[in-house]
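pasting for ref. prot 1 ->
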Amino acid sequence: MKIVFTIAALHPSLGGPARTVPALCRAIAAVGADVELITISEGDAPDPEERPDQQFKLTRIATRAGRYSPRTWHRQFKEALAKAARAHDVIVYDVGLWLPQNHFVAKVARARKLPLIISPRGMLSRRALEVSRWKKRLAWFAYQRADLRRAAVLHVTSEAEAQDCRRRGLTQPIAVVPNGIDVPSDFQRRAGPNGRMRSALFLSRLHPIKGLKDLVEAWARVRPVGWRMVVAGPDEDGHQREIETLVKTLGLDEQFQFIGPVGGKEKWDLYAAADLFVLPSYSESFGQVVGEALAAGVPVITTRATPWQKIESSRCGWWIETGVERLAGALQTATQLCVSDLADMGRRGRELVLSNYSWQSSAERLLSVMQWLIGKADKPCWLL
């Protein structure tokens, strides 16, 4: 069996899928499948480095114009897909919606009668559909609804995302399989404050859907003494300037630090130094950074728009309604806790993630679905 993964691009500005899709490819290859990942490499945007444990083929289609201009990559992409599809028992797994690449993959899979799995990655949530609303409505009726209905299986990372799919009238089997969480083997938490400024960390795309405006306004209400807020992640559509202006207007310049995109060791160093992690998002299919923060032993404040209700039951943070008022209340409580109480919450969060979110487990569950699609296994009973 060969699994051909396709994703529009892998550079960091795309957020979670740019990291989790290669990780999923590695995990599925490690449990015994032939895996190829085909992506579009845009201009000078950085792609992830190939790792010694890669175990899968990474095919990059170079284009200067970008993934929104299919004329510049159409022929090469078609050739790469056709070459990959020559193998025996091929399954196509496409990531995301709305882009020309997604529609093109669906057409190729249909023409070649290949089983197609689509992973929407949160793009069918109510809040996500409000972004570029009219363009998405046109695309939905032009091609996206039909492409989704023809998929053999939908892969989602949470029950909430599965409900989003059902609300859009999609009736095929849905595989609810969460992402795994990678933790560096040499990761270590840093020692307690010892007089230093304590830090809260936001790490995600700087986009309105992530709730950064709420975070600044809530922080202004609380103004915790001895704390600073570190904001890390790539700017999207100039949103950072808007947030920086708000920070200045509210007199928070000395408490907020914007450090831009991070990855690799630099990212895990931020987790290691953080006393608290905050993601006040309005829409997440999974929220990879929440899992990473918990795995790093950092208590988390996040919203009920993320699928992390286990934060409450495991007593490792705050799972709150969206909005400034609830966020301010959680920040008030969290920043008044002593170091040892936050450390205990962090330890519980780490145990939660290490016990429940491994890439091997996710790969094995998805592989069982793929084996069923090609007639080599029974239908998994847990498919929705």
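and prot 2 ->
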Amino acid sequence: MKAKEFLQQARFLDQRINSKVREIEKMNALATNMSAVISDMPKAKGSTTSRMEDTVCKIIDYENEVRENLDRLISIKREINDTLEQIDEVDYRIVLQKRYLEMCSWEEIACDIDKKVRWVQMLHGRGLDKVQELLDRSA
């Protein structure tokens, strides 16, 4: 995988993670808001579980799936962060962290580190080269 592709994974991880967290919250809300229907009608013979119990089990299974996906997303983000932490040159690391983990624009990064945009883009290119070296070494 190329360095830029590797780092670009982080650009949308926060959105995906937040989406997964919201899904879990919705599932929990569904599970806690369910109520049993009280009826004087006789229950069907041979039925060992209630529909409510089945629904709660399905919600729990789905929530577990979502949590597994969330764990994978967090692992990818951690891997990206760990890779950036291995870069010795602080300027490269800062530019890459701001660009890919904080989703900053070139102008925002330039303002934050008090450099010109063109210089930030040059640091970015050199930082990508360092990330590629790290990826090639770990492959």
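The longest helix spans residues 51-85.
DSSP finds six helices and no strands in the chain.
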